[in-house]
Specification:
CATH superfamily of the largest domain: Ribonuclease H-like superfamily/Ribonuclease H
Helix content: 25-40%
Strand content: 15-25%
Distance between the termini: 52 Å
CATH topology of the largest domain: Nucleotidyltransferase, domain 5
CATH architecture of the largest domain: 2-Layer Sandwich
Mean pLDDT: 88
CATH class of the largest domain: Alpha Beta
Number of domains: 4
Radius of gyration: 30 Å
Shape: elongated
Number of strands: 15
Number of helices: 17
Length: about 475
């Protein structure tokens, strides 16, 4: 891959966040066949002030960029130089994030293959603790231009690649490069252009077989990395082998965040019934253990296609089959010495068979009060009780794309997903005529887990 046309890039910026901060300088070094064929750089007027700490680090002042061209005036020249080349940078995620955001705002779709020399150094030299560019310059005796200036750092990064070509076995280097870039062994029928166009943000992807048959639906916070992992011979599992043998095409849906990807994956699997998805496939209904502690009736297993969210607090556990629910009830009864008759597991009158084997504490024989028995039954079932919806009514969870800043609000009520809105107008329409809430076990688990893991970081709109 290092024989391919390369564009080694370095940026200086006003900060670290692509959606808020701006580019102040860009440097590009083009290599063909390992030889430098062009160097190019320009200061960029960011349109905002440069923080004093950044000015001190880079030496780029507000006065220096005041008369520099804005990014939009340089966009065509930048995009033209990068087109069709492997994008190389030290900590490539940083530089790619800024360029994708800046070019995307001007209508340029920028999704290059990329190589991070920071990751490459870590892979080639795992015993070394530090791999920042300054350390590499000193360790390998690289050309040291103006540090923390775009062209100087881009030139040093290009020199690092040339150093590796001269001092390492070609096979070892090529294997490391492919591992770092996730370069796949593509199915013959899958066009390379589809892989090149994959975004690096969150979303859902779909694989298709002969005749458009859905093979697999997956999700990731990095679509490109996840899809390429299916085709990586070094890590391929048996399921991936079967998918690769059958795949003919793929597509994807980008989402601003992880929650949107999780929900869409669960819904698409149920709609498309892909051949290789099992966990989220459509089920005929949910089983649970229904029991009213204030009543006289024993627990019973009930099955509902879409349980009413308002009744969930009267249910204990949600199971995909009635058999699973019955097994769990029996296990709880046996583990806690409960009565098989009073829990509905055994018919008849008088002491149950478990009491005769000294496995029941005798509520059926007068050795234990019914109240005490039911109290212990309640304690055994309580860990299975559905958690209360932690909000008063409907809420929206806002997600924001880490690079583009695109937003989406997911409308939720009592663990049910009502829809997503990408604009204020869409949200108003959804609030005015929301769909009927239908409880789904997979959606409950997704929402419950997401709220538990990210409670402090979520942007939640309440009282909707």
């Amino acid at each position: 891959m290092l024989e391919d046309p390369l564009a080694v890039v370095d940026l200086e910026t006003t900060g670290t966040r692509p959606t808020r901060d701006r580019i102040t300088e860009i440097g590009i070094v083009l290599l063909d066949g390992g030889q430098i064929t062009e160097t190019w750089s320009s200061l960029v007027n960011p349109g905002i002030g440069i923080p004093p700490a950044i000015q001190s680090l880079t030496g780029i002042s507000n006065a220096m960029v005041a008369k520099a061209p804005p990014f939009e005036a340089l966009a065509e020249a930048i995009a033209g130089r990068l087109a069709g080349r492997l994008f190389v940078a030290h900590n490539a995620r940083f530089d790619l994030g800024f360029l994708k955001n800046a070019l995307g705002a001007l209508g340029h779709e920028f999704r290059p293959r990329s190589l991070c020399t920071l990751k490459l150094s870590r892979r080639l030299y795992p015993n070394e603790r530090r791999h920042n560019l300054g350390v590499l310059i000193e360790r390998h005796g690289l050309a040291a231009g103006d540090r923390h200036r775009a062209l100087g750092d881009a030139t040093a990064t290009a020199d690092f690649l040339r150093h590796l070509r001269e001092h390492l076995d070609p096979g070892t280097l090529e294997a490391a490069v492919r591992a770092v870039t996730g370069s796949p062994t593509l199915p013959d029928a899958l066009p390379r252009e589809r892989i090149d166009a994959l975004p690096e943000g969150p979303g859902v992807y779909r694989f298709y077989g002969e005749g458009g048959t859905p093979l697999y639906v997956g999700k990731s916070v990095n679509l490109r990395a996840r899809v390429l992992s299916h085709f990586s011979a070094d890590h391929r599992v048996e399921k991936d082998r079967r998918i690769v043998a059958q795949i003919r095409d793929l597509d994807w849906i980008e989402t601003p965040g992880e929650l949107g990807a999780l929900i869409r994956e669960a819904r698409l699997v149920k709609e498309l019934l892909p051949v290789h998805n099992r966990r989220l496939r459509r089920h005929q209904g949910l089983a649970s253990i229904a029991w009213d502690p204030a009543g006289e009736a024993p627990p019973r297993v009930v099955r509902e296609a879409h349980p009413d969210p308002a009744t969930l607090q009267t249910r204990f556990g949600l199971f995909r089959t009635a058999r699973e629910a019955q097994k769990r009830l029996r296990r709880l009864v046996e583990e806690n010495g409960l009565c098989h008759r009073l829990t509905g597991l055994e018919k008849g009158q008088g002491p149950c068979f478990a009491y005769q084997l000294e496995r029941c504490r005798g509520a059926c024989a007068g050795a234990e009060t019914r109240a005490r028995h039911d109290q212990r039954l309640h304690q055994a079932l309580e860990p299975l009780r559905m958690e209360d919806w932690p909000f008063n009514g409907r809420v929206g969870i806002r997600e924001r794309h880490p690079v583009t800043g695109e937003e989406e609000i997911h409308l939720l009520d009592r663990w049910c997903y009502l829809g997503s809105a990408g604009s204020a107008a869409e949200l108003d329409a959804l609030l005015e005529a929301p769909p009927q809430a239908e409880f789904d076990l997979d959606t409950y688990r997704i929402l419950h887990g997401h709220l538990r893991r990210n409670a402090r970081r979520l942007d939640i709109l309440q009282n909707l």
